[in-house]
Amino acid sequence: MTDTRRKHVPRLHVDRALAIGDTVALGAQQVHHLGAVLRLRTGADLVLFDGRGGEYPARLAALDRKSAQALVLEHRQPRRESPLAVTLAQAVARGDRMDFAVAKAVELGVAAIQPLFTERGQVKLAGDRLDRKHRHWQAVVRSAAEQAGREVLPTVHVPCRLDGWLTDAGGERRLMLDPRATGGPADGTTTPTSVTLLIGPESGFSDQELDAARASGFEGVRLGPRILRTETAGPAALAALQTRWGDFR
């Protein structure tokens, strides 16, 4: 088998459990990407992953304009998942800002994403629009996970209101960004295995939301003296957490 570490090899998520020897039918968008964009041919090397751990080197067994199949050759575990399980609780941002926040969180090793509606948030979603947006964010996660070499596909929870979610929030450490706080996101002497990171909307949390979050065990932290955009704050805090307690060391 060709050494896939020495050249770019397409990496694709497959929404089914994989095993060595499987022949896997690829999706329509994957077929288009492999054939029309990358111009691959039968016999090309691929890497598949099912989001359950590890990845599967494979070979493109068949490809035409409408379909493609891949033969799974082996299973390997490169161990790219962080020992720190971070849930990013992100206030829903407008337009591409939310896509950016979600994609960068996946690249930075987040374990789960919880989109939240807040008092000052300007995005209102319900019914079919909410379902479509949730599916869209799941697609953003898949694409970012393929690019970043993730072995486990982060979960995108169904968006909900902050006030209802706070009572169920978990994590050994619960952190929320607050520019008035004095400590940083990676302060502390103990090493947690799980963190929930709460990021507010463009206009910030209301005083009532800050009080409710504190009552639910969230510690206010800040990212230096500057005010970051909502889509920048999450990735910046995640990088700090991964440097202190995760796999950036």
Write a structural description.
The protein is built from six helices and twelve strands. 29% of the residues lie in helices and 22% in strands. It starts with 10 loop residues before the first strand and ends with a helix. It has two domains: 4-72, Hypothetical PUA domain-like, domain 1 (Ribosomal Protein L25, Chain P); 85-245, Alpha/beta knot. The strands form two sheets. Strands 6, 7, 8, 9, 10, 11 and 12 form a seven-stranded parallel sheet that branches. The chain has 249 residues and is an alpha/beta fold. It is found in: Cytoplasm. One of its GO terms (biological process) is methylation. InterPro entries: Alpha/beta_knot_MTases, PUA-like_sf, RsmE, RsmE_MTase_dom, RsmE_PUA-like, tRNA_m1G_MTases_N. It holds the Pfam family Methyltrans_RNA.
Annotation, overall tally of beta strands: 12
What is the H/E string?
Answer: EEHEEEEHEHEEHEEHEH
CATH class of the largest domain: Alpha Beta
Shape: elongated
- Could you name the ranges where pLDDT drops below 50 across 5 or more consecutive residues? 1-5
Number of domains: 2
The end-to-end distance, rounded to whole angstroms, is: 33 Å
CATH fourth-tier homologous superfamily of the largest domain: SPOUT methyltransferase, trefoil knot domain
Oligomer: single chain
Number of helices: 6
Task: Indicate the mean pLDDT.
Answer: 92
CATH topology of the largest domain: Alpha/beta knot
> C-alpha Rg, in Å?
20 Å
- Helical/strand content category: alpha/beta
Proportion in helices: 25-40%
- Major β-sheet profile: 7 strands, parallel
